[in-house]
Amino acid sequence: MLSALALVLAFSFQVPKPSQAPTPGTETPAQEFRRISEELYSGDCPQLGSKLRRVLKQALKNPELPEADRIRGMMDLGDELVEAGEVEDAISTL
To answer: pTM for the whole thing?
Structure first.
């Protein structure tokens, strides 16, 4: 009796229900990869996202930013831009 119940429970978790099965042709692997990549890059992910660059660029637009903070911000932004592969923008920032 116990083994039959265990078997039923095991199959109930392994067999996908028709509503949960992915529909064929909705998204190719390449499209899925691109979508995920764009979401990571434009998001707040500390390793891959662009949030820190956006925040630094916005802060540097403030004309009242103290000079020491401006220099530190420009250096940090330059580092972030180099890591993102935007070397020409990094050079112009510095």
So the answer is: 0.59
